[in-house]
Amino acid sequence: MAQTEIDVPRSHGPHISTSTGFGRFGEKRELRTYQAHQLEDEVSQKWRAQFIISDEKFVRSLFNNNFQNSWQDAVPVWQQTIEAIQQRDIEKAEQLVRSMYAMFETEITRINMAAIHLEKHNPKSALNVLEYSGDMAKQNWEFYLNKALARMDLKDYQLALMELNNVASLQDSNVKVAFCFAKIYQYLGYYYKAGEYLKLTSKLAPSYSPGWYMLGMIQSKLGELQDAYTSFEQAQKISPNQYSLWYNKGNVLLRLTKYESAVACYKQSLRLNPGYAMAWNNMGIALNYVGRSFEALQSFRKALSFNPRLYEAHLNCGLIFETMGKRQKALEYYHRFLQIAPNNFQKQKEIVNSRIGALQRKNQ
Questions:
Q1: For the chain, what is the radius of gyration of the CA atoms?
Q2: Within 13 Å of residue 17, how many CA atoms lie on the same side as its CB?
Q3: Span 176-197, pLDDT tens digits
Q4: Would you say 262 and 253 are in contact if contact means Cβ atoms under 8 Å apart?
Q5: How far apart are CA 256 and CA 135, in angstroms?
Q6: Which range, of 65-74, 120-129, 131-140, averages the lowest pLDDT?
Q7: What is the pLDDT of residues 70-97, one digit of tens each?
Q8: How far is residue 153's CA from residue 122's CA, in Å, rounded to a whole number?
């Protein structure tokens, strides 16, 4: 299944100064800061990569790079760039970021250029931009996160983990960072560690459906079936119309031997995606467990109508036909299974060959 990318940064609570030394001015200043954080959150939700849109960081970047005498030329382009990023207009954002990059090659424009490359699935280009960044860029957590994302795209998971460790020292409670840690640990096969970071993700962003969904997937892999069911339930409260959620919830119920409930989940998945062959196949398994073998056979054959190379469905059709006494039909499906099943199904192939031998002896 495709991995889901995170789009949610850490959430910022309002921090209004109550110190009598600041008075109303202090309150307004903090309120503006809070509103700016809200804008950063809103923008970050729309993109996989991490852009810098903070005016404060932008101005500091100009001054740090001795562009203070021409900052007025940059401000209108910067504002247009932020507007394009807010509207998730990638083509316009790319044009403006490139313009800013040509005018003012600062750590901010480099990080944003890398983000554009990542959004356009060019991780090598993103890394090339970031590799030439100076020390000032390394003070921004966005620099390391974008490098980590590029490493992940290139399947360099150990290097991605190293980049994220740099992020963690700058951002200790960031949802995007936590989710990236979880994905890397999942890819590396460290499922318990992935689960820990997904629990943190769900704690920091309880309304983020992909966090709960991925947590459910990890818990299911670890055999924590009841916890997985609860995580899928949480994800569905937020995003009830995702067919893969219903499918995986059905798989958990199937393993919990709650077959009728599993059938209901598979049916909902198929309402949302009628051509989902694996849902048809697994619904057939659940139907067969409750004695509805004819409906199960129909479900398996429906799966094959959408994916003729779904070897599990060929095996399941063979088993159903064998129990029905339809030996020739069973042999047809068994032989097809042997033709297309992958090498890691060697044990199942041996069992099927044994069944074929027994059926052929009965036909003699």
A1: 27
A2: 15
A3: 889 999 999 999 999 999 999 9
A4: yes
A5: 54
A6: 65-74
A7: 777 788 888 999 899 888 899 999 999 9
A8: 9
Structure tokens at 30: 């903090």
**251-275 pLDDT per residue, tens:** 999 999 999 999 999 999 999 999 9
CB of 3 within 8 A of CB of 194? no
Q: Is the pTM above the cut of 0.90?
A: no
Q: Longest Cα pair distance anywhere in the chain, in angstroms?
A: 99
Q: Are 314 and 329 in contact (CB under 8 A)?
A: no
Q: Please, are residues 278 and 303 in contact by the beta-carbon 8 Å criterion? A: yes
Distance CA 299, CA 329 (A): 16
Buried b (16+ CB within 10 A) or exposed e, 75-86: eeebebbbebbe
User: Which residues in 289-315 are b (16+ Cβ under 10 Å) and which e?
Assistant: beebbeebbbbbbbbbebbeebbbbbb
Query: At residue 200, does pLDDT exceed 80?
Result: yes
What is the structure's pLDDT at 12?
32
Burial 218-254 (b: 16+ CB within 10 A, else e): bbbeeebbebbbbbbebbbebeeebbbbbbbbbbbbb
pLDDT digits (tens, 9 = 90+) for 215-248: 999 999 999 999 999 999 999 999 999 999 999 9
